[in-house]
Amino acid sequence: MSSAIEVSGLRKAFGDKVVLDGIDLVVEAGTVFSLLGPNGAGKTTTVNVLATLMKADGGSVRVAGHDVAAETKAVRATIGVTGQFAAVDELLTGQENLQLMADLHRVADGRRVIGRLLERFDLVEAGTELVNSYSGGMRRKLDLAMTLVGDPSIIFLDEPTTGLDPRSRRTMWDIIRELLAEGVTIFLTTQYLEEADQLADRVAVLDQGRIVAQGTPDELKRQVPGSHVRLRFAGLGDLDAAARLFAGSTRDDEALTLRVPGDGDTESVRILLNQLHDNALHADDFSVHTPDLDDVFLALTGRPNAEVVTK
Ligand SMILES: Nc1ncnc2c1ncn2[C@@H]1O[C@H](COP(=O)(O)OP(=O)(O)OP(=O)(O)O)[C@@H](O)[C@H]1O
Fold first, then answer.
1. What topology does CATH give the domain 228-289?
2. What is the pLDDT of residues 127-157, one digit of tens each?
3. Least CB-packed of 25, 33, 148, 274 within 10 Å?
4. Which residue range or ranges hold the ABC transporter domain (predicted)?
5. Residue 241, exposed/middle/buried by CB under 10 A (0-12, 13-18, 19+)?
6. Is the distance from CB of 179 to CB of 212 less than 8 angstroms?
7. pLDDT tens per residue, range 193-212
């Protein structure tokens, strides 16, 4: 696999406020890379530098093999960017917005390309209406459709689903998966942990201008202790007995639950259930928990991710 994006020692400050403090990352071609971080972590600044919209103070950035500072034009020819605040013109129709992009990119077969995009994004009917009548989800879709007019091989999606309802979010996820299947490389910023988990091949966690962890979602989750089995009992007697049985377990007397550490694979669960059975203990409820990116963020930054939306 070749790399679509290579970033090394990227630094950016606004005045004396250091926003990116030496960032290294590599995005393989044809993958989804997610930059995850709370508000103000520096995600948009990173996208702006990588997409040639802003100059870095230091470090090197190569996109599609081109240096973003020296070969701006070549980079721009291969990328598409959709922002948090859609770059659509409110006072034009969806179709007219797409036409503008087609003209800008000198697309030979503009009408056909636009027709296909409107269909793909389920905007055929809305295409003749002014954008100021669109919902948030429709705007995001139009914004992405506009990006695709130029047929980019690398797409930057800056918080593509922030503020969208769950259904529109899932539609956007499906579109992102389709783009990936077509071989497009996707650089996605998000503050939604589940979004990174669902879509990304690799995740980098950005916190206060530094990448504090990088890996596949599973690799990141494995770094964090927290796998456990949760048992709920009918009464305190059974809870007492079970707590004595399982070393290292922690109990919640009010909820009548016991948290037993373990990796939750079938063998360890079988042993645990046998132990309950052999001791004539019955649990009313049983569930296996593995850490999610939420736990990862907490473990890495030492802060609860109050600013990070976890749904
Ligand atoms: N042009 C600018 N001038 C001064 N400060 C800026 C500028 N752009 C961004 N910042 C500051 O840099 C920090 C990082 O901003 P950035 O927009 O990159 O964060 P973010 O992770 O994308 O967060 P959000 O989710 O809020 O967009 C913030 O503290 C922001 O106030």
1. Alpha-Beta Plaits (3.30.70)
2. 999 999 998 889 988 999 999 998 999 999 9
3. 274
4. 5-233
5. middle
6. no
7. 788 889 999 999 998 899 98
Q: Whose CA is nearest to atom 13 of ligand 1?
A: 40
Q: Is 16 in the pocket of ligand 1 (CB under 6 A)?
A: no
Query: CB of 47 closer than 6 A to ligand 1?
Result: no
List the chain domain ranges.
Answer: 3-222, 228-289
- Mutation probe of ligand 1 site: the residue of 34, 43, 81, 82 with most atoms within 8 A of C-beta: 43
**Low-confidence residues of the chain: pLDDT under 70:** 1, 84-86, 225-226, 292-294, 302-311
Q: In testing the pocket of ligand 1, which one of 11, 16, 19 has its CB within 8 Å of the most ligand atoms?
A: 19
CA distance 224 to 216: 13
pLDDT of residue 264: 72
